[in-house]
Design goal:
This protein is an alpha+beta fold. It has a single domain (about 15-45, about 90-225), classed as Transposase IS200-like (Alpha-Beta Plaits, 2-Layer Sandwich), CATH 3.30.70. It has 9 helices and 5 strands. It has helices spanning about 40-55, 60-70, 70-85, 115-135, 155-165, 170, 185, 200, 210-215; strands at about 15, 25-30, 90-100, 100-110, 145-150. A 5-stranded antiparallel sheet has the order 1-5-2-4-3. Helix 1 packs antiparallel against helix 4 and helix 2 (about 60-70) packs antiparallel against helix 3.
């Protein structure tokens, strides 16, 4: 295996939201009272579309062209997209998984406050969509999101495995790569969403990532503090 070296000290769970630039974090949360946050395929698709909007660079030339030459609907869409925040220079999404009542992100941020800005934009926008669609009010997520510092290469690899194995119980024996609401298809090169960045983790492997994820090896103890707790 090969890849960028990280520090080797043990992380503690980060509840204070004091983050460091050029650092890795496991970001996660679940629905309030552990209730579902995705009720149908549209919900997953909308959430993914928000991720794409925030993580891909804006095509400013195209949007400005629509403002000048588009029809009224295209102009309105361009104005909205130009107003939205964009985090393509500050956030790399290395791995993720969306589950019916919770989510996991493995993120590399280049600036100290990128996670806060990105999370506030994404989760506020999705909560507004969800509440409008299902005619509900109030928070959708349980407290604030949690973020834990990832400080070693070993933790980075095993955390990606943990994230990608989340749907196993849901699949009831079906192939893990058939779960479309995670980044695992990108890691197996059967799908290509350019806002997902698997290259850094895959650089540790030649061709055995699928074996690493789907094998029965137990996780090392030093990743336990990084995981979603009850």
């Amino acid at each position: 295996m090969q890849g960028r070296a990280l520090q080797t000290n043990m992380p503690a769970k980060n509840r204070t939201k004091e983050y460091l630039a050029n650092s890795y974090y496991h970001l996660y949360n679940r629905g309030v009272e552990k209730r579902p946050i995705f009720l149908d395929e549209q919900d997953y698709n909308v959430f993914n579309s928000y991720l794409e909007t925030y993580l891909l660079p804006k095509d400013l030339n195209h949007l400005n062209d629509l403002l000048g030459n588009g029809n009224p609907k295209e102009k309105d869409t361009a104005r909205k997209l130009l107003r939205l925040n964009n985090f393509s220079d500050e956030i790399n999404l290395l791995a993720y998984c969306l589950m019916p009542n919770h989510f996991h992100f493995l993120i590399y941020q280049t600036t100290a406050n990128a996670i806060d800005k990105f999370s506030n934009s994404l989760f506020t926008r999705y909560c507004m969509y969800f509440n409008r669609k299902y005619k509900r009010i109030g928070p959708l997520f349980q407290d604030l999101y949690k973020a834990v510092s990832v400080t070693s290469g070993e933790q980075l690899l095993w955390l990606s495995r943990y994230i990608h194995r989340n749907p196993l119980d849901l699949l009831q024996g079906r192939a893990l790569q058939t779960y479309m609401h995670s980044s695992y298809p990108e890691y197996l090169r059967v799908r290509n969403k350019s806002w997902i960045k698997p290259e850094e983790i895959l650089a540790y492997f030649k061709s055995e990532y699928k074996i690493f994820v789907e094998g029965n090896s137990p996780e090392p103890e030093n990743i336990y503090p990084l995981l979603l707790s009850d």
